[in-house]
Each structure stands twice: as structure tokens, then as C-alpha cells.
Amino acid sequence: MLELKNLTFLAADTEASESAPQRRAIVNDINFTFETGGFYAITGPNGSGKSTLAKLIMGINETSEGKILFEGEEINKLAINERSRKGIVYGFQNPARFKGTTFRDLLSIAAGTEDEDSLVKILARVGICSYDFLDKPVDSKLSGGEIKKIELATVIAANPRVAIYDEPDTGIDLWTIGPMVDLLKREQQQNNTTTIVVSHNKAFLEAADTLMLLRNGRIAYTGDLEGAMPLLEDLSLCTFSDTCEGETNVRCYR
Amino acid sequence: MFDAIDKQVLKQVADLEEVPKGAYNIRKNGKLLGREVSANINIEANEKGDGIVIDVKPGTVNESVHIPVILSQAGLHDVVYNTFIIGDNSDVTIVAGCGIHCGSSEAEGHSGIHEFRIGSGARVKYVEKHVAIGEGTGRRSLNPTTRVFMEDNASAEMELTQLGGVDEAKRANEASIGAGSVLLITERVMTEGNQRAESQNEIELAGSDSKTNIVSRSVLKGDSRQDFYVNLTARARCYGHIECDAIIMDNGNNQTVPALKAFHPDAELTHEASIGKIANDQLMKLMSLGLSYDEAVNRIIQGFLK
User: Fold this and answer.
1) How many other β-carbons are positioned within 10 Å of the β-carbon of residue A52?
2) Where are the beta strands (DSSP E) in B134-167?
3) Distance (Å, rounded) from C-alpha B43 to C-alpha B97?
4) Which residues, 6+ apart, have CB-to-CB distance to A69 below 8 Å?
């Protein structure tokens, strides 16, 4: 299991004056336990700290205060690759694009093998039916959807114990989201993968056993989707509430 | 035929363990070490005696020529003029390359001046690797010149690689591309320490519907310096693209100067160029798959220069 204890991430407050620099909590004193094999969705308005929280778990953001425990061991001092070796793997919202590095290269690193049969099995497992795809360079020529599929495949190929997906549906067409949810569910069920998805997408919220709703860096709600609906529909989640001129305002960005 | 140093050099420049199959010409310290011709590929000394002429008969397909150069004599600077005449509608692979083994404090160098005359409809793959090895401290320099003249509907793919060990490299590439012909050049250079590498390219899209893609990948370690210049000139309806990327690892110094010149209204020329450190998101991705920082850097560079 993965435990967050008083987890806090502070960033320099850009609005504070130079003479009195201040730090603002992007993730503020979060306490939560992800149980082994559970499917969790982290949601909330833009700027609520969802991605920052996911990056704290992976070690991409450094913990400011509090602790992260993985199976009882404190991991918040460990580097990204050390956490990865313990079984925590992260699917990036905006995956890196390389020059010269192919999908095969990434998949081999993730799976820890260059064996052709093993790589082909992974392709089948993640539902990529085109064998040619393996030698595609992971560069700027890939479409948004293609690179997200590659990102997802590399996470699954690593056989993670905890898989974190940051907005996996960005750039994915509407018709692919269903199969993607099914794939993550299947991985969760067959391999007992603790699955954490940061998303606004209802398909993922519905698939999750537990929802974590963040607002201003704090947990506003944890539980099932049904219980979250009143909060999700509530305008108070809007980060523009101070300047809101009402629901009929056509400039509502929510 | 080969001693231990020759074998080591040949392995690195031409991936050869033994005498290659097909036509070959192996030059060592300015002299001929071995030559073999085939029914379709002739190799002989040029008139001046300062190089060779490789003559590929029209219609020759699926054949290869190896012409590696070994340099292991202290103080020698070897200059050679080679001409490749590629007959119409042939399809050949040419593996060139020069390996310097430096065992003393004296300088060693090689200047290979290569001229390609590529006939109509011919296809050529040219692979050239430059390496310098050995315990010696002498300055190692490799200054290749490659001139390419392509007739109509020909295609040439040139892979030019120099991965470490060479103190000074001054490369000059020139090409004139005929109607319907395609020229692809990929240059990969890694420098370290105080090494210097310069590449000057003058590429002319001369014929209608000619195409070219020029790719330069540079990795600069230590205090090394690399300069890449390319003038891409269009004189007909054509398409040309330049892509140059440099990764600076330490305190390297890089100039990348792509220039596009169109002298025809239907010319389409584009370029993209970048200089910088390894992108952080690439490192993060590989580390999130379990690689250490150093392993991630190595994998990214390997891919970049592959």
C-alpha cells in the first residue's frame, strides 16, 4: 500500500512581493492511503494540485513536507529511478518526444528485455496490433493519440505495482477512451496493479473504485462517484468563483 | 594479411572481421594492402596514381564495395583522390571509412577526396565512418571532401559518422542533384575534450523535382567545438529540408548555420535547427522506467546518434 502523510508541496508564490517572498502550498497537508490493487481517480478543477500530487508520488516533484510510505518504507527521499525500481511507474500527460529513440527502445527499457517475442506479447497486451509501430521513432512526427498510446504501453510493459497515469486521455479520440479504460481495468484486475489516474474524464471516474477530489491542494472528497456528483456539479469547485458573474455568463471557463 | 591493429581498425570503420565479400580496396599508410574486383565492379589506380577509380557497370544490382583506409604510421598525412562512377540503373552499397591508430606523439591524418558520378536511375548507399584510436598523443585529423553529381532519377543515401577520437575534422560536402533525383545526407558527429569538427555543405537542387534531406546530429562533450554550415540552393521546382540538432553535454561550443536560397518560384525549402542540453522530459521519462541519470543520458545520446 501507498500512504501519503501530511504531504505538502510548496512553490514560490509568483504574486508575492520580492521584498517578502512567500511560498504557496500547491498540495496542502494530504493524508490518504492507496490500497494495493485499487483503482483510484484523482480529479478536481484546473490548478487544484492533481498532477502535482501524482508527480510527488513518482518523485518528479520533491516533497516539501510530510511523508510518502510505500509498503511501510519511506520513499520521499528516493530518486525517480529508485522509486521506479520499487514498482512505481508514471505515464506523463505530455510524453517526451525524442530524436532517434524508437518505441522499441522505450519498450525494451521498460520491459527489461530486447527479446522480440516478449515485445510482441506486450504489443498484443496493450492492444497495439500493428507490428510496424515498434520501430517508429518517438519524435515530433507522432500524433497526440499515438504518443499517448506509446506512453501507456511503456508504463504497462514495466509491470508496475503502482501505475500512475496523468491525464491519459489527452489527445485520444473519443472512440479510444473506452478500450483504454478497459485496458487499465484489465491490468488492475489481472496483475493487481494499484492504478491511479488523474483525469477529468467521466469514463475514468466511473471506472474507479475510489475518487479523490482535490480543491486548492486539499482533499475535498474521497469516496465513490455517486457521492462526488453533488460536489462535481457544484459551482463552488470553480476556481474563478471570485469573479463569476453567474452560470449564464458565456465566458465561463469551467 | 591483417595485423591486430588493422583488424581493430577495420572492425570499427567497416564492421569487418576478415576480407570482405565482393569488390574491395584496402589502403594502409598510403599504400595498397589488398584489392579485389568483381565482374561488375572494377577498381584501378587513377592516372595520376594518387587514388583509385571505382567503376560500377550499368545495371549492377545488390553488390557492395568496401574501401577502408587504415592509418597507423606516425607522422603520416595521407591524401587520396577516389572517383566513383556509378552506372545507370545500378544499385550498390559503398562502405568507406578511415581509422587512425595513433601510437606515438606524432600527428597522423587522412584527407579523402571522393567524387561520385551517379548515373540515371542509379541507387547508391554510401556509409562512411571515421574513428581514431590508440594510446598515442599525436594529433589525429580527418578532412574528407565528398562531391556528388547526380543525373536524373537517381537516389543516394549518405551516412557520414565520426564518433570520437578525432582531434580535428574539416569536412566539405558538395552536391548537384539532377531532375527527379533524391539525396539524403545524415551526418553524426561526437566530439570530446578539445576536439574540433567543422562541416561545410554546398548542396544544389539543380533539376526539376529534385529532393534532398540533410540531417546533422551533433553531440559535444568536454570543451569541444563543432560548426555546421549548409547552403541549400534551389534552381528548379524542388523540395529540400535541413534538420540540424546539437546536444551540448558539458562546455561545448556549437554553431549551426543553415541557409536556404531559392532561385526558382516553385522551390520549397525548409529547415529546423536546435542547440541545447538533453531535454529534461526525456531524462524524466527514462528515469521513470528505472534508468539512472547517467544511463538515461547514454541511451538518449545513443538513440540520437544511431
Assistant:
1) 18
2) 140-142, 145-150, 155-163
3) 17
4) A2, A3, A5, A75
Cell matching residue B52: 583509385
> Out of A99, A100, A109, whose CB is closest to B289?
A109
- Other CB atoms within 10 A of residue B26 CB: 22
Distance of CA A222 to the CA centre of its chain: 17
* Lookup result for grid cell 567524387: B115
Report CB contact under 8 Å: B288, A95: no
A38 in contact with B at a CB cutoff of 8 Å?
Answer: no
Between CA B196 and CA A166 the distance in angstroms is 43
* Total Cβ atoms within 10 A of residue B294: 8
The verdict on B289 touching A (C-beta cutoff 8 Å) is yes
Interface test with B, best of A55, A107, A109, A164 (most B CBs within 10 A): A109
Nearest Cα to Cα of residue A226 among A208, A199, A239, A200: A208
Encode burial over B166-181: b for 16+ CB neighbours within 10 A, e otherwise.
bbbbbbbbbbbbbbbb
What is the number of CB-based contacts under 8 A between chain A and chain B? 70
Contact A100 B304 (CB under 8 A): yes
Q: What's the complex ipTM?
A: 0.90
| Residue in B81, B80, B70, B62 with CA at minimum distance from that of residue B23 | B62
* Distance from C-alpha of B29 to C-alpha of B74, rounded to nearest angstrom: 9
Query: Is B290–A84 a contact, with Cβ atoms under 8 angstroms apart?
Result: yes
Contacts of A134 (CB under 8 A, 6+ apart): A102, A103, A104, A107, A119, A120, A123
Q: How far is CA A145 from the centre of its chain?
A: 16
Cα separation, A20 vs B272, whole angstroms: 43
Q: Round to whole Å and give the CA distance between A227 and A242.
A: 26
Instruction: Tell me the Ramachandran region of residue A100: left when phi exceeds 0, alpha when psi lies from -120 to 50, beta otherwise.
Output: left
How far apart are the C-alpha atoms of A89 and A110, rounded to whole Å? 10
Q: Where are the alpha helices (DSSP H) in chain A?
A: 50-58, 80-85, 103-111, 116-126, 144-157, 174-191, 202-207, 225-233
**Cα→Cα distances A4→A72, A125, A168, Å:** 11, 31, 23
pLDDT in 10s for each residue of chain B, 306 residues:
788 888 888 888 888 877 888 899 999 998 899 999 999 999 999 999 899 999 999 999 999 999 999 988 888 888 999 999 999 999 999 999 888 888 888 888 989 999 999 999 999 999 999 989 888 888 999 999 999 999 999 999 999 999 888 999 999 999 999 999 999 999 999 999 999 999 999 999 999 999 999 999 999 999 999 999 999 999 999 999 999 999 999 999 999 999 999 999 999 999 999 999 999 999 999 999 999 999 999 999 999 998
Which amino acid, one-letter code, is at B51?
A: G
The full length of chain A comes to: 254
Task: Supply angle C-alpha B6, B9, B13, rounded to 5.
Answer: 135
Please, what is the Cα angle at A35 between A81 and A72, to 5 degrees? 55
- The model's pTM: 0.85
Taking the C-alpha atoms of residue A13 and residue A20, their distance in angstroms, rounded to an integer, is: 10
